[in-house]
Specification:
Number of domains: 1
Strand content: 15-25%
CATH topology: Rossmann fold
Mean pLDDT: 94
Strand order of the largest sheet: 2-3-1-4-8
Number of helices: 9
Oligomer: single chain
Helix content: 40-55%
Radius of gyration: 16 Å
Distance between the termini: 10 Å
CATH architecture: 3-Layer(aba) Sandwich
Order of helices and strands: EHEHHHEHEHEEEHHEH
Structural class: alpha/beta
Bound molecules: adenosine monophosphate
Shape: globular
Low-confidence stretches: none
Length: 211
């Protein structure tokens, strides 16, 4: 199965991608996670993209396509994969199309999580994330632990989850990524799922689309 999860920042792509990955035994490829890991390790790529991530701007398409090209060539992708946070522009979607055709493979489905932007500002600006394993903790109404309950890593707010940056990231999404909905509607691969429902309901709806 080869799946794209589309949706604005905070729509729950990461949460759902992890659940689908566990259920179907296919890797979850999150370009955001790959970039953050490079920043943490201080690689050349990390140094190049750090400012972009802090501002909430998109990293250049060429850089992202190189990352995806290398990642999709790894053995664990043979059974399939989930793309979370990629593609984010029409140029990236075209680039992906080219890479898949070259590899003689096709996407199974593109699931778009449909969400309400104002609710996302609240969701994201109260989100705290484990710096080590990426687990999300939501501060809305619940106490956030200082240490991750799964791995013991430090839990704090991502720089780009500050409210002002969240609003900017949502604008970037509207301008640059939302056109992908039309793009995949035209290829006939788009399925819409209500992203404002509970994690379990959204998960079941996605699984239903994969059947
Ligand atoms: P995410 O964790 O998916 O919200 O991504 C965090 C940040 O990483 C984004 O705000 C961008 O700066 C960068 N990023 C992640 N994926 C992409 C992509 N496909 N294209 C461009 N920039 C990306």
């Amino acid at each position: 199965m080869r799946l794209i999860l589309l949706g604005s920042p905070g729509a729950g792509k990461g949460t759902q991608a992890k659940l689908i990955s566990a259920k179907f035994g296919i890797p979850n490829i999150s370009t955001g996670d790959i970039l953050r890991e490079n920043i943490r390790q201080g690689t050349e790529l990390g140094k190049k993209v750090k400012d972009c991530l802090e501002r909430g701007d998109l990293v250049p398409d060429d850089t992202i396509l190189e990352i995806i090209d290398a990642r999709l060539k790894q053995d664990d992708c043979h059974k399939g994969f989930i793309l979370d946070g990629f593609p984010r522009t029409v140029a990236q979607a075209d680039g992906l199309d080219h890479l898949l055709k070259r590899g003689g493979i096709a996407l199974s489905v593109v699931v778009a999580l449909v969400t309400d932007p104002e609710a996302l500002v609240r969701r994201l600006s109260s989100r705290h994330t484990c710096r080590n394993c990426g687990a999300d903790y939501n501060a809305q109404g619940a106490a956030v632990p200082e240490r991750c309950t799964r791995c013991g890593g430090i839990v704090d707010q991502r720089d780009d989850d500050k409210e002002e940056t969240v609003r900017y990231r949502l604008e970037v999404y509207q301008k640059q990524t939302a056109p992908l909905i039309r793009f995949y509607e035209e290829t006939g691969q788009l399925r819409r799922v209500d992203g404002m429902a509970s994690v379990e309901t959204v998960f079941q709806a996605i699984v239903g689309e994969l059947a």
